[in-house]
Amino acid sequence: MGSSLHAFLLRIKMLFRKRRMDREMAEELEFHQAMLREKLEGQGISKSELNQATRQTFGDAGRWHERLRELWQFRGLENLLRDISFSARMLKKSPGFTTVALLTLAIGVGANTAIFSLINGLLLRPLPVPHADQLVVLSIHEGGPTPNYSFPAPFFRALEHQPAIFSDVFAYNNNGRPLQVQARSGSEDVPGMEVSGQFFQALQTPPLLGRYLTAADDNTGGNPAGLAVVISENFWGRWFHRDPSVVGRKLVIANVPFTVVGVMPKRFIGADLMQRPDIFVPLSAEPIVDAPRHNIDEGLNAWWLTVIARLQPGVTLQQANAALRTVSGPILHAADDPNYIAQEDKAHFRFQAEPGSGGYAMARFFFRNPLLALLAMCAGILLLACLNLASLLIARGAMRERELATRLAMGATRWRLIQQLFIESLLLAVLGTIAGIAVSPLVGSSLAAFLTSSTGDPTVVLDTSLDLRVLVFAAVIAIVSAVLIGLMPALQATAGNLNDHIKDGQHARQLHEQRWILPRILMALEVALALVLVVGAGLLATSLVRLYRSGVGFDPKGLANISFNMDKQQLEGDALMRVYQEIGQGLSHQPGVKSVSFQFITPLSHRGWNGNYSAPGGNTHVIWLNSVGPNYFETMRIPMYMGREFRWNDTNASGLKIILNQSAASLLFPDHNALGRQIVDPSEKTSYQVVAIVADAKYSGMMDSAPPAGYVPIQQDEQKKPSLNAVVRVDGPMTPLAATARSLAARLAPTIPPPILTTMNEVVNNSVSAQRMMAILSLFFAGCALLITAIGLYGTLAYATARRTSEIGIRMALGAKRGQVIAMVFRQNAWVAIAGCISGMIAAVLASRAMASLLFETSPHDPWVLLASIAVLLMIASCASLLPALQAARIDPILAIRCE
Amino acid sequence: MPAKPDTMTQNDSDSRDLVQGTLEMLILKTLALEPMHGYGVALRIEQISHGVFRVNPGSLLPALSRMERAGSVKSEWHATENNRRAKYYQLTAKGRKSLTRETEQWQRQTAAIARILEA
Question: How many domains does chain B have?
Fold first, then answer.
């Protein structure tokens, strides 16, 4: 064993010193020859006999060299290198084919890797903390279809100490508003997070400087030394310029001084993969930094915490869930709202834990299914590209029969030829996949940017950087595609009898026909796959068009939404309402403004507010709420069926009022006489008068139909200091409004941050961003699929026809007309296309069922889409097949026969 | 280039040709006495065997190459007495072990043949 290893190593060494080896061998030979001559001379032999004798002993110099070199050659490796350079030359000789092949592979591999890196960043990647697999996310099951991942503070505190199940339990706020930090001049909004006592301990990451927050800090007023915060390494660099004495310095947040007690390293990002908070404050300091809100005080009315826990070592998820079930009841019954307790008991209230190595991110719910569907499509495109390349290579290989047969005759083994052909296809595959993998980070990050911008939150981050999982995925698809592409042509090309290859006459033709079956099957598969992709794209595009056409209930065109943040100013109640009234008047005086109103919740922003109401004597129903200003429905262009708009004098003193939409009215008053009646809030014992009935409008998302909704006047809002959005109906450009709003705010409420303008069109588009992304990308993939299939159909038919040039020449010489020749060539592909369409249709019908959840008002078996897809595919196939047919008809019979 | 099998064909079909393994043993023994170049080895073998074994270069140089590949000898370029450049071979520790092993094997074989012939 040792000697063969030694020999192997020497051979590798010799590979690099080939020329020197040759020189040394020649020298040694010469020396030997010279010594021999001397000896013979000494023995007295004449010159001519000398040469003869030497030559006899030594033989031909060339063969000597060869024999000696053979001993040192590393034949395997040298063959490999030679094959590679040969293949590279062959590929360079047909640049068109090579470019197309590389491009299709690059698209397939690049798309797959890009989408997978998105899936990795969103769904697969764990939190960068030790033993992330022991983390679980807690949720509340209230009998609905989905659990609630937001906890109110009392429930969290009750779960905070469960040593039998969890070693640590922590929570952080999921209503991420930036913290207002006092800077040298004015204040700055810094992304931050309110975290409970065991947060850092559970995440097991030591701080860079100082210490992290502990349970002692999570008390009202902080620890005995005062209020503490921990900052990120980025913030330390940006704000404190990496001052090593930062521990102990003060940060003034929301006008209250906090002491910096530690700095966390760059790799620590908290418990939310999509956030990068710069400042961590204790949860108990929430009323200070989140003023005027006081979520802790609101108890069961504010659901604002994400709760994550670390399992005790040795405790399984099932055991944890069983234990949680037993503590759910007691915790619920310790709440202070008997109505709530009764209601939840009926709904089988319980806490639940699920695996949470990646923490919790709401964006996952919106993008999970679309991304998985996209990955399936990408896999389809890659398969298509591989099939295409394989059939093109087989077709091309058939053209080289003579070359291969000659090489076989000269002594090459079949295995050697397969190796060389395989290397050729492998080179193509490797280059194509490298190109694809090189492009994928760019594609992935631009897709990620699209996704994150559509959430409307500028601080959201999606990390699509390459890590082990993505690299392994890329390697696997590279190998699979390389094998798929490389093996088939190599095996096929070297099959068959030697003589039949060289012969090019009648006898050989039958064999040739047989050998075209495999490419045809591959092309039919390709057509089927392309059809599936086109059907998918058609369904998604139709669904998106129907989604937009279904309308939102109001008119988003020309509608601007200006959000005001009133937290940091003094006025509240009626005084604040007067400020809003003045703002409204100021805005309405701008040129082009038709009408102005206010709303608390912007539609389609996935925010919600609901309550229980009943008609006297009737059942209690859940109604979704919004508080709106006067002239709201006129501004939004929501049709009003009966009644009147709110007015500025509809204050609390004039009695509580409400406007219902059609669904709510029919729900609460089945006899359709809602106007003027009273509805009651059973828990608050308050009663509202219905002053108008309006049309239904979409509430939190586009895909869900309009729920029963009610609108209350902003003057009667329970919150003392509501932050409202102004809605402005504008005829013309909207950007001047931003400046107007800023100046109005500066005049009337100087301490608030500048108001932010968005158009309702943007809001509508953002709410369907997942569907838009899917429709656009699937159309792109369908286009690529059609292009690739067309190239494949054209290429295989062109090669097949080129082989039959002499036959076609003979036919034409014997009297076949041009049309007949065209039909004959065209017919070959026609069968392929038809077979592909039929099998593709079956596959599409089966596959589209999986897409049903992504479609809006579109059946997965929509007949128009299916028919249109078949039509498109047949048309493309016909065009692609027509070109070689026309070329065949232009063959000059005399030239064709002469070529033989 | 068509593939050729890796066996050596002899130049001379002389009845005094040596079998490959035996030649290597003789070369090892010669080099054990002192390091020398290829021609010197051939000369020495011819001298000591009193002309019975005339090693032709067609067997010698490949044999030396094989032994170098296997690690039994190592080579160095030196100047000869006549100021010519030649490749000098010398035994390695591995070569010495091979020599002992092959000598034992040869002696066992000759003893066995002798017994058969005398039987």
Answer: 1
